[in-house]
Design goal:
The strands form 5 sheets. This protein has a 7-stranded mixed sheet, with helices on one face. It starts with a helix and ends in a 6-residue tail after the last strand. It has 19 helices and 24 strands. Strand 13, helix 13 and strand 14 form a beta-alpha-beta unit. It has 3 domains: 1-42, no CATH class; 52-182, Purple Acid Phosphatase, chain A, domain 2 (4-Layer Sandwich); 265-538, Purple Acid Phosphatase, chain A, domain 2, CATH 3.60.21. By secondary structure, the chain is of the alpha/beta class. Keywords: Hydrolase, Manganese, Metal-binding, Protein phosphatase. It catalyses: O-phospho-L-seryl-[protein] + H2O = L-seryl-[protein] + phosphate; O-phospho-L-threonyl-[protein] + H2O = L-threonyl-[protein] + phosphate. Its EC number is 3.1.3.16.
């Protein structure tokens, strides 16, 4: 839109559009022309660390090397065709191969194959572009080789979209912060805290007629200060009263031994002495029973979905999110089965729970159950590396784990989903433990239920246990309990996270390359003090 012909039509020149004051009304046409002259000098493409290419629109059939972009002569208006036009106007389209005419009447649309071929030829990893409204503020394309970012929530006051910002760290790890639309992820009752409050306020700055570029710099610096979100480290709490001395349990030794393989080749086993594992289970069980079946938590914290014995990926999650106690964590269940290192996974998680009982939280998943682990791998792993008796002791701990969590009274978390039996959270608090997972009822649903966008209300689940539920169930539940978001796991989703019911429910899955058969990413959701949600995505490791 930074172009004279476009701004002349769409409001920057003279319209009072969406209550935004424009050049002609607030200043004069001469100033508009001066802005347009600046637009004609702006960059059209960027490359980050030779691996990520960024533009507003999309790729171009005319581009063969980035030298072509470097040779663009400026100032220049946007031509009707050609390289500049495509970089500013082109769009991806998942339903085509190659190139096709664009319904916008300018430039092209291009398919996933174009993205793959371009990145392979240029030895790059990602195309990052904007130009299109996307519901969640960001949307992946071409197996996560292209991302569309849109940062204007409630666009034009007509769309219910969120806006997003992508952060790239020095390792080129991408994470996302979503600024929700009016009914989105950010908790409205807490929106006056931190950066969210600064951004949410409706204010107009009256600029003086002689506003210089120095003035602009001062203004931008001021805005940046208003939008700073201060990082806050987790305060380490005292160890739990029911815990024996750490020297007796050798918790530090267990954690240290578990982390010895950090940074090494995936698959290396960690063999903890059986006596230490038994003591760990005994103490973890006491801590779970001492805490409520319903965890009542406060942000900030990070939330992870299914891990399923993928120990190397669990360590990656901690590397990206911060090893405890640097960050608070809530895991949503399914720590064992299917993966090759369930013992390392559950041992490290239990050890962190024992060491940081008020900062590190584990919900029960449907796989934390004797009947399921008997079939899907954990039983066999325990039998092979230790004995059946130790497996039984783990199952006894599973029977004592919490099944639901509530964050700041606004976000409800569980492994599976909602239940038609739940009318209030006191029902969860009254659950008597230890307990196995029943075939029906509240506990069963919290661990097994799934959302389904194709239905309304409740229906039978193809899993043969519990239910599926529609978007209307989510909306009704949240409205009744004055909450904003349901956060659950339990299903593989391609990008590691997936929204449902107009961003009122999110599914998190944290095991990339699940079972070595899926090309899915894994994700971790961070919730800050304002209840703003952002995401870190663990790409699947490329097979050699």
């Amino acid at each position: 839109m930074a172009c004279a012909s476009i701004t002349r039509i769409y409001g920057f020149y003279d319209a009072v559009w969406l209550q935004l004051a424009e050049c002609k009304r607030r200043y004069n046409i001469k100033l508009w022309k001066q802005f347009c002259d600046v637009f004609n000098c702006m960059s059209v493409c960027a490359v980050i660390d030779e691996k990520i290419v960024c533009m507003h629109g999309g790729l171009s059939p005319e581009i063969t090397s980035f030298e072509q972009v470097k040779r663009i002569v400026r100032p220049t208006d946007v031509p009707d065709t050609g390289l500049i036009c495509d970089l500013l106007w082109a769009d991806p389209d998942k339903d085509i191969q190659g190139w096709a005419e664009n319904d916008r009447g300018v430039s092209f649309i291009f398919g996933p194959d174009v993205v793959s071929n371009f990145l392979q030829k240029q030895e790059m990893d990602l195309v990052c572009r904007a130009h299109q409204v996307v519901e969640d503020g960001y949307e992946f394309f071409a197996k996560r080789q292209l991302i569309t970012l849109f940062s204007a929530p409630n666009y034009c006051g007509e769309f219910d979209n969120a806006g997003a910002m992508m952060s790239i760290d020095e390792t080129l790890m991408c994470s996302f912060k979503e600024g929700a639309a009016a009914a989105g992820v950010v908790t409205r009752s807490r929106a006056d805290r931190g950066a969210a409050g600064a951004l949410a306020q409706d204010f107009t700055i009256a600029l003086p007629q002689a506003f210089t570029w120095t003035d602009w710099a001062v203004l931008l610096a001021w805005l940046a200060r208003r939008m700073v979100i201060r990082a806050r480290l987790v305060k380490r709490t005292e160890t739990h009263g029911t815990m024996k001395k750490q020297e007796d349990l050798a918790i530090e030794e267990i954690i240290e031994k578990c982390l010895e393989v950090k940074g090494g080749k995936p698959g290396k086993l960690v063999q903890i002495p059986e006596g230490q594992v038994k003591s760990l289970c005994t103490t973890a069980r006491m801590i779970f029973l001492d805490q409520s079946p319903l965890l009542e938590l406060e942000a900030p914290l990070k939330i992870c979905g299914d891990v399923h014995g993928q120990y190397h990926d669990l360590l990656r999650l901690f590397e990206y999110g911060g090893f405890p106690p640097e960050s608070n964590y809530l895991f949503l269940g399914d720590y064992v089965d299917r993966g090759k290192q369930s013992l390392e996974t559950i041992t490290l998680l239990f050890a962190y729970k024992v060491k940081f009982p008020e900062n590190f939280f584990l919900l029960r998943g449907n796989h934390e159950c004797a009947s399921i682990t008997r079939i899907y791998g954990f039983y066999d792993e325990c039998k092979r590396r230790y004995n059946i008796k130790l497996w039984k002791q783990f199952c006894d701990v599973f029977n004592c784990m919490p099944v639901c969590g509530v964050i700041d009274e606004k976000i409800v978390c569980m492994h599976g989903g909602l239940s038609p039996e739940i009318t209030n959270f006191d029902q969860v608090k009254r659950i008597v433990r230890p307990t196995d997972v029943p075939d029906t009822g509240l506990i069963c649903d919290l661990l097994w239920a799934d959302p389904d966008k194709e239905i309304a209300g409740w229906a039978e689940n193809d899993r043969g246990v519990s239910f599926i539920f529609g978007p209307d169930v989510v909306s009704t539940f949240l409205q009744k309990h004055e909450m904003d978001l349901v956060c659950r796991a339990h299903q593989v989703v391609e990008d590691g996270y997936e929204f449902f019911a107009k961003r009122q429910l999110i599914t998190l899955f944290s095991a990339p390359n699940y079972c070595g058969e899926f090309d899915n990413a894994g994700a971790m959701m961070s919730i800050d003090e304002t209840l703003m949600c952002s995401f870190k995505v663990l790409k699947p490791v490329k097979k050699k």
